[in-house]
Amino acid sequence: MALLEQINNLLWGLPLIILLMGTHIYFTCRLRFPQRNLFWAIRLSLFSAEGTASAGAGAASSETTRNLSPFSALSTTLAATLGTGNIIGVSTAVALGGPGAVFWCWITGILGMATAYGECYLSVLCRQKKEDGLYVGGPMYVMKNGLHNKSLGSLYALCTLTAAFGVGCTTQSNSVTRAAALSFGISPHPAGIALAVITGAVILGGIRTIGSLCERTVPAITFLYLFGCMLLLFLYRHQLIAAVIWIMKDAFSFASLSGGVAGAGIARAMRYGIARGLFTNEAGIGTSAIAAAASHTKDPKIQAYVSMTAVFWDTVVMCLLTGLVVVCNMLYDPASTASAAETDLTAAAFSHLPYVGDAFLTISLCAFAVTTLIGWSYFGEKAAEYLGGNRSVPLYKLCYIVMIYLGAIIPMHLVWECTDLINGIMALPNLFALWALRKEIRS
After folding, report:
1. In whole angstroms, how large is the CA radius of gyration of the chain?
2. I need a labelling partner for 34 at 20 to 30 A (CA). Which of 323, 337, 391, 440 fits?
3. % of the chain with per-residue pLDDT over 70
4. How crowded is residue 285: how many other Cβ atoms within 10 Å of its Cβ?
């Protein structure tokens, strides 16, 4: 554990933070602030993406029906990103990095939309069509077909496969079983088995089943959770302004910078805020581009704009609201946060939700975790397919289902440190490819 913490402190030190934020800022400027088209992109994803993709095509082709619609690709991305990062991840970021971590997490989302745009643009541009008519893509295919470096693509695919078992699997099952144990007294073993069975039944159905389920469930549970956050912020309305001021002061404590303590505090807030922001929206890691490539959209720009909105919903909206709820509760009820573990600050805040507080958070967490397990299973499947062909996919799915159960009984702190390590390693080859092919990206 101590070794992992030392590696992560080195990995998530100033060089990687500068590289990640520098990439976000560069693509924001180079692409002429693509975030300016955010509301058009949201409207495109909800209403007109399918019509744009198939304009002039006449009757729907088999290619269109076999691949995902742009909205299904977006829903699959959101399924993989909306989860414990928005709920538990923000809690640990505040506990370990202070309230200022909320600001840096939010900034990662604002600027990260441009990076996500670039990743998804390249993924659609460099994807391949299989014999069965399905599109496959992602950073490994960008490295293979864009950089003409298959070895680097294999390295990224191996990282993605590892992340599927870690980031996408163990963090989710661990969070679900922990929440179920605290709220309902359910043992991790039966909870882990039930979670593995439910998830396995979906992922064995393939990408069309995954996309269809995500399209129906992700928007519903997202708006339900946001409604709960808004109710809490209304309850904490007298602490809201003070919470915002505290977050900003903690993020930029320049007044005491000369003493060194504040400087360390800023670095710590940035380390956990940016790390958790990257974990939840994955801008810079490139996994969302795997789902984007599965869309039947012909124009890379259209799908890139649609996929970019995932970062907005995930980090700019959900992580910000969760962070505000947590920090407001630290002012509203300091006693509840003083005795809470680092992963339980969100639970302490939601306990004040009238009548259904604990149960509401547990059900939301479980629902998000199941969709994340399903979404990430697809990312890992495409990585396994890249490395070992179609023959490796059944074995991968079996291992993934088993890991859901094993993740339910692994210590939580170990899970999160492993998650930060895997995310940091994955970001490096993806950012290299993004910079190398930056001139191919159009806005």
Report:
1. 21
2. 323
3. 84
4. 30
